[in-house]
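Structure catalogue
Derive tokens from sequence
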Amino acid sequence: MNALEQVKKGLIVSCQALEEEPLHGPMFMAAMARSAALGGAVGIRTNGVQEVEVIKKITGLPVIGIKKVTDQEGRMCITPTFAHAKALVEAGADIIAVDVRHERPFGEPLQELLPRISQELGVLVMADCGSLEDAKLAKEIGVDVLAPTFGFQENSIGIEPDFKLLNEMIGLGLPVIAEGGFWYPEQVVRAFELGAWAVVAGTAITRPMEITKRFVKALDEHGIS
């Protein structure tokens, strides 16, 4: 059974912290991942080679590995090169997620990168999309699973899932792991009702600074604080 089958109909927890956050670092993220596993998560998504390695060892769960790279202009891309993907696989990642947005700011050509990861590393490839067009292109090039990672919607206190986009992507016929803006169990249930293969929840579970900000924004919005 491959990693995609292992996570089917389950909750994947994204364990990530940016450098400016107090919980940044592989040991903190390993503790988060272990907690998620004990709570019933079927897989973990994480950023960085060290994080992948320690989380794989401590949980034994399928790991979606990514490498967020930011250039001098502050633009971010997920797993932009084969070298990044290779390092993640060598650390133990079962699935490699790659930024496939049409406005992807930098990185190796997707027509070369996606097949090379699959063929040379023998690993499943996940396309992090921002639109239906992104998903269609990724499917055409060849990936194992799609995700509307960048396709969330904005609301007054943060973000929420774009269920219309999710439904359209599911219609393409590839497995779709719903991701982006999931804050409530009811949203996760709705994604599965639409036909999602699995669902990723991250910030709502593993980023206390951002969770706190969301509560504070809600208070501000209602003129309480």
About this structure: The longest strand covers residues 11-15.
